Structure formats: C-alpha cells, structure tokens
Amino acid sequence: MENLRLDDFTRYKFLSGIKHSPAGRLACFAVHQADLEENGYRSHLWLYDLEKESCFQLTGLGKEQAFTWLSPDEILFASVRNPKDLKRQKKGEQFTVFYKIRTEGGEAVEAFRIPLKVLEIKPLPEERFLLTALYNPRLPDLSSLPEGERAEKLGQLEEERNCEVLEEIPFWSNGRGFVSGCRVRLYLFDLKTNALEPLTRELVQVSSFQLNEARDQAVFIASEYQGKAKLTSEIYLADLKTKEVRRLTPEGTFAWFQAYFLNQEELICYGTDRQRFGLNENPRFYLVNLESGEKTPLTPDLDCSIGSSVGSDCRYGGGRSSQLHGGYLYFTTTEGHSSYLNRIDRSGRIERLTAAEGSVDSFSVQGESILLIGLRELRLQELYSLEAGTERQLTSFNAWVPRERKLSRPEHLSFQTAPGVTIDGWVLRPVDYVQGQKYPAILDIHGGPKTVYGTVFFHEMQYWANAGYFVFFCNPRGSDGKGNEFADLRGKYGTVDYDDLMRFTDLVLERYPGIDPERLGVTGGSYGGFMTNWIIGQTDRFAAAASQRSISNWISKFCTTDIGYYFNQDQIAANPWDNPDKLWWHSPLKYAHRVKTPTLFIHSEEDYRCWVVEGLQMFTALKYHGVEARLCMFRGENHELSRSGKPKHRIRRLQEITNWFDKYLK
To answer: Count of CB atoms within 10 A of residue 627's CB?
Structure first.
C-alpha cells in the first residue's frame, strides 16, 4: 500500500441525487469527478437496475447533474452542450437548456429551453412543468431576439453590470454574487405553447415546492419582502389549473422549511418559531390543515436537527433530506456524530431506519425499495440499499482507496466538560506511527458552529496523517447532534467552546504521549477560522496556525456579509449600535496584539459568507505587531473552496496549509 497523496481527491468519485424511476425498477444518480485539465468537475448520470442489480453509465458528455424522471424510461436533465450556448452564458445571458434521454441509452435530444436559470423542475400532466428559477429584473429575456440584436443587448447588459445598484440586504450571496432585487420565483411552463408564466410576485422568494399526487396542486415555502430579507416564511398553495395562489399560514410568525401533501386535507411540515434558541433552533413536525392553515404539533418534544450536518471534504452535488412516500415522511437527522434515515407517520411516531455510523447524504424511497448514498467508516461515498434495517453496498466506485492507500482509523475520545455535558472527539495517528517516537499534531476545528465531526472519511485529515502528523478533532459546545441546549452558543462565542477545545487538547496530550506538545498546530474554516483566530489571541501553546475563511471582527462582519445582519445579532446577541462593546469583546481582532503564533490565512475573493476583509484585518494586525503571517487569496472561489472549489485551487490550498505546518512543526 502507498501513502495517500495530496491530489488523490481528484480520483475520488462523488455521488449525489439518487431518485427512483416512477415504476421503481431503475434509479438514477449523478457521479462527479474532478477534471484537472479543465480545472472543474465532470458529472455523468448513472442508472442502477434494481432487478438485475447492475449499474451503468447513461450520459457521457460530463455536464449532466440535475435531472428529473419524465416517465419510467425517460429522463430530463439540464446541460450546456452547444458551444454557442456556452459562449452566450459566459457573456451573462441567463437560460437553461433541457435534454431528454431514454434509459436504454442512445443520444440525448434537446427538449426545450427556459430563458432563466432553472433550479428545480417537475413534470405535470399535459406537457406542462412546474419549476423554480432565478429572477433578476435587470436581466431581460433575450431568447427570442435575432443574433445581432442579442449581441447588442448583451453588450448593454455588460455595461449595466459595471454599475451595481444595491437596494436590499443581504445584497450579495455566497456562490451567487450580488442579489439585490433578485428572487427565486415559481413558474409554470407549457411545452405545447412554449409559454412561461410566473405564479409568484416579483418580491416573493421561494425556497421549496412539492406536488400533490394528482400533480394539479403545489405547496411551497416562500417569503415576500422588500429592502430587508425576512427570517420567517409562509406556506402557500397553488392551484395549477386555475393558477390561483393562496397564502395558507400567518405572515411573519414562523420559519417553515418544508411541506408535503399528506392527504387531501392535510400537509405534513417542519419548521420552528425560533423563540427559545434563535436562528439555529431545531425544527419540529406539524400537521397543517389545507383549508384553515391551522397547525397541530406532531412532535412537541423533538430536539434534533433535520438533515445531515456531518462534515467531510469528499462530497459534490446534493440530494434530498426528506421525501413523502406511502403515508410516511422520510427524513434524515443528525444525532450524535452521525446522520440517520428516519420516517414519521401521521400520529407523530418516528422510526429510525438506519443504524450505521457515518452520513446519509441522499436517499430515495419507492415501493419497498430504499436506496441511499452515504459515507461509511473509511469508505467514501457509495450507493446502498436498505432492506429490513440492513444496509447492502451496491457500488464500488471508490473501493480502490482503502485497498491502495494507507489510512488512519479515528480513535474515539470523550470527556465530561460540565455536569451532564459530554464532548466527543477523535484522534488519527500517523499512518506509519512508531512507538516511542515524537510527532507533531494538528487540531482541526469544524465550521458552523452547528455541524459535527464524525468518523467519516476526511481527505485533508487523512493526508496529514500520511504526512506524519497526529490529527485530533472534536465537537465542542455549539455543535449539532446533541439538542438545542448543547448547540446554543448565542452570546458565548470564545468562552465555553474555547474551554472545550483546550480541555480536549489537554486530554489528547495526556492519552497520546507520542505527540510533541511543543509542535502543535491549529486550523479550521468559517467558525473554525474564527476559533483559530480566537485561540492564537488567548494562548501561545500552538506553534503554528492556519486560519481559513475566518471571522476576525464581528462589527465589520455585521454590515458586510450575506448573513451578517441576522446571524451576528442572533449569535453574538448584540449589534453595533446597542452593544458594540460585546461585539468587540468576542472579536479575535481585539486580542491580535497578544498573538505570537505564526499564522497562515486562507480566503477566497468571492466568499461573501466570511468576506476576505476578515482575513485581511487579522493579517494586517499580526504584521503590524511583528508576527509571521501569510495570506493566500484565491480568485474565482467562494466559501466552498475546500469542498467544491476548482481542483487546482484545492490542491494549492492544501499545499499551502501543509507547507506552513511543515515549516513550523517539523
């Protein structure tokens, strides 16, 4: 076996979006892989035949990811296959081209075009479709114009973009850029007439939608605002025959996340009023009457998050975290340090369907068949079937990794940090560990803060273990998986979470005498970047630090990032006018004059979540006070650099961090 290589992630296969066909005989999913030559990712659609228990690739161009089933033997997917279309999109024109392909193979043929960037689409009877798409009032529909006129209009649009007009907050969004005035709207598209008709008003932001069984009604979650985005949302009903839209639930009292037609009288939904634990409060399930909008709690005592927040840098693409089928709502939860598949019925009874540690990243249910894409132990993503509570692995896309590469198995450590409060953590030994030798070690801190580390495969950590480092990581207070009280870090950033991380470090050094306490490094991204900045201002115990997509100043962040005005107020329990001293007290920049630790800062130019100015401020402060510092800013990248950034940038990022630690710890 060979040591894991830094660029091995470019050979990994990432799976996403599993969906059964309407008849249930086939299932489609996307397979992604990094493409170094193009400095991007290639995505193909694959099919799994449940009867033959075989898997085969359906598409070959490498630009197919989002899809929907048109019939038991035909799939619709979005792609850019025409070089002229690619040129038009690069010039700023917004449109989506859909193709259809038969499941027995053959060439995909163009089905239709939508003059907007479509996010999700579902087929309706009589060759109609319901879809969500990005709406920008400053971008007109150019699809019907002749080539010459279109080029002229695109030139005018390019000139218009040279002056960005802001009238709302948030005014930009990570991964999307400036979004003032932009919305996600719900549309009806009639293929027979090529007519595209909006069902929602220009100021309504739609977050999700579902169809009833007859596909003549839709329920969707949305909020309407002007000037400042709301933190609440409402449930709406749309009659797809009359095109009438009706708001079902009261305005401005609740944050709804998802709603499904349970029967002809009721919806099953989940959401929260955020009254006890603020922005990160775990949702609960409700029945909502389709006539009155009255909600009835199904799970008043539920205290776990919906979806998977188990961290890994080995995913690409997404997948649903809930699905209604056969009178049950199937959904994933994060509990402890893993995510699980569950289902709930109309009585509120919840059954956990999976038992294995790891992460359920996507799933699909049809008839008696349950398929899921997951991370299990040291295996990267594969497709599994779930039969009578037992998982069976169906694919071997990434079987070569544990067979050909040395890997370090996480060793669990836990301790009680307060009465009744247990912190879970893990240690990776160097893969060629020799008893009696001393090794450097890296503390890796997750983002969020309401996410979790677990036992799943993490490329950067495994690479460091292969490079001769101990790697240790844990879930301090503020993390997900242990209920609202444990996750509630409002007004406490840098206090109890810092204590947990330092106590965990003490425990690791006590249990692992092979670690040299003089050669400790610390790193983390987002919240982990904040905590890295915080740690170096509180202690000199770390010989080097790498702060990634970090926060240094809660005052500047309040008014500049895409989540600042609501996230900072909620999480720090202050704003710049009512209590600026509290924001400053929790800001690592306040303590930068104490720092002695050589620190590398990693930021992305288009990261609007933790904007580059956060790193620049801390970098400047360290340089001002004579501390060794280096800042690497990646152009064309955003907050997701370490997880889905351009492959060459991901390689450079990991090289920079590893070289920094090698310089100061080896």
So the answer is: 18
